[in-house]
């Protein structure tokens, strides 16, 4: 997803590309040299300088790194982790990110003379989200991926609860515990503070939902997808929704439709009906986005979402025994995928159409005596 790709390793690290003077001199030179080497592609040199900068900064009293010492310390670690990833050393990057998160968690649990700020707590949630992504990418134990993503979700909910008025805070407290994704989270009318982006909340909710969906725990995934949508596209709002946000919402609706279709706690007819409604909403929403003037990257993303939405409708029709309608949807998905060069969508649609055509050919061959 566009927004997730942008947020995975950036974390708003403005300080590294502007005022190095905000850093103590004992850290500043190594930090500047490390960032310069990174920009020049000298990754091993960059790792050496940034590692020394981090070690030096960790040895300093927090007061010497004020203001925002926790942001500074985690910031060096994140840039170091990013360089390690670029140098194809993901295991080392993973350890650096995990250590940075642990320091932030300790600062939250044991307040120091320099309390952790709201934005620094958001950074902790973002680091946990990053670790959850890496745990999936590099096939870490599922328990580890779940632990990171659950912390990211729950910490964002705690942040929102702590920044609301007493009435709204109570609403979050009553329904905001994910209990590892098992309960619904009502986020419809929450006000996000200026330093919390919608994607800071949406991304971990969606990712944890996808984790449970892969595990076949749709009853845990569905509430998380619904919560992500309530933050991304709140019902009671007059704000103008950007096209990329609409397509992101349609992507989540696709996931929700698939998750509902696989949920075994309701009858087949009921879950297919529910799923079709969400798939229809996804198609309408992405078509609304595509009616705007889109740049190439957003247009490509929206096209991919629409290809998937059309295919999902075909799958739902096929599950319901409506082969003719299923073929129509699969054909639409195939045509769009072909026109925009979406190779994965082309292959999936072709496989689905071959599968549906196979029984028909068999019937015709039997009637003509070929079998």
UniProtKB/TrEMBL annotation:
Q: Which Gene3D superfamilies match?
A: Tetratricopeptide repeat domain
Q: Segment Disordered: which positions?
A: 162-184
Stored InterPro entries: Mrg3-like, TPR-like_helical_dom_sf
What residue spans carry the Basic and acidic residues bias annotation?
Answer: 162-173
Q: Where is the composition biased (Polar residues)?
A: 174-183
Source organism superkingdom: Eukaryota
Which PANTHER family does the record cross-reference, listed alphabetically? MITOCHONDRIAL INNER MEMBRANE I-AAA PROTEASE SUPERCOMPLEX SUBUNIT MGR3-RELATED (PTHR28142:SF1)
Q: What is this protein called?
A: Uncharacterized protein
Taxonomic lineage of the native organism? Eukaryota, Fungi, Dikarya, Basidiomycota, Agaricomycotina
């Amino acid at each position: 997803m566009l927004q997730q790709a942008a947020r995975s390793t950036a974390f708003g690290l403005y300080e590294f590309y502007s005022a190095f003077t905000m850093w103590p001199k004992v850290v500043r030179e190594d930090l500047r040299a490390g960032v310069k080497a990174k920009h020049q592609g000298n990754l091993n040199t960059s790792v050496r300088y940034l590692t020394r900068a981090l070690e030096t900064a960790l040895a300093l009293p927090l007061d010497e790194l004020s203001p925002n010492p926790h942001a500074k310390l985690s910031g060096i670690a994140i840039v170091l982790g990013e360089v390690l990833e670029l140098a194809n050393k993901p295991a080392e990057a993973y350890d650096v990110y995990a250590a940075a998160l642990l320091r932030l968690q300790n600062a939250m649990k044991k307040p120091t003379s320099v309390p952790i700020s709201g934005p620094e707590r958001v950074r902790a949630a973002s680091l946990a989200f990053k670790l959850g992504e890496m745990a999936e990418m590099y096939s870490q134990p599922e328990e580890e991926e779940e632990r990171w993503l659950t912390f990211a979700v729950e910490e964002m909910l705690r942040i929102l609860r702590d920044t609301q008025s007493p009435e709204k805070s109570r609403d979050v407290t009553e329904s905001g515990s994910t209990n590892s994704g098992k309960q619904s989270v009502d986020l419809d009318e929450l006000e996000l503070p200026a330093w919390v982006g919608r994607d800071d909340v949406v991304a971990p909710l969606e990712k944890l939902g996808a984790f449970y969906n892969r595990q076949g725990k749709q009853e845990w995934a569905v509430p998380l997808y619904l919560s992500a949508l309530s933050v991304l596209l709140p019902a009671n709002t007059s704000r103008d929704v950007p096209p990329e946000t609409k397509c992101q919402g349609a992507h989540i609706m696709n996931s929700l439709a698939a998750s509902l279709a696989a949920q075994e706690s309701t009858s087949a007819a009921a879950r297919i009906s529910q799923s079709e409604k969400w798939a229809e909403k996804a198609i309408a929403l992405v078509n609304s986005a595509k009616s705007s003037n889109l740049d190439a990257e957003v247009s490509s993303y929206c096209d991919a979402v629409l290809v998937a939405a059309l295919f999902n409708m075909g799958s739902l029709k096929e599950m319901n025994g409506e082969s003719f309608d299923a073929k129509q949807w699969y054909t639409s998905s195939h045509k769009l995928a072909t026109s925009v060069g979406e190779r994965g969508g082309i292959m999936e649609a072709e496989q689905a159409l071959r599968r549906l055509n196979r029984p028909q050919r068999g019937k015709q061959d039997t009637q003509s005596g070929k079998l």
